[in-house]
Structure prediction request, 151 residues.
Amino acid sequence: FPHFNALSWTIRDEYKNAGYRMLAWTNPARNARVALRYSLLMFPLCIAFSYAGVTDWGFAVTSSVINGWMLREAIRFWRYEGAKGSARGLFWASVWHLPIVLVLAMAHKKGLWEKVWRAAVGDAGEEEWEYDDEEPEQELGRGSETGGPTR
Prediction:
């Protein structure tokens, strides 16, 4: 929404002349509030990734920087209702926001850096390499002691 609302504000006259009723020209204040609301929602969304265990808690911290930039631009867009270059600022913040957040989420994937460290140092963890000393069970289809096939 921040991306589309900022973009629609910059070409609101074209929408109006074409007969499309867009929030950008019918109600610019609401257009800016919608962009601001969805910019604010990015904070709890990124925190939810960490809370759910998809990413580590560093993601909640580092994503706050890019979320803060988009929120700052959304506040400017709301305050100036798109004037003074605020629509363009929010547009470009929203263009960069998603790729940066996705790269941060990949970099903060839960357990990723522990695996990288183990691979670099060569410590694969002894518990992963423990073997069972028990004899393997008979293969499927071979006879058992009773003479019938095992399942």
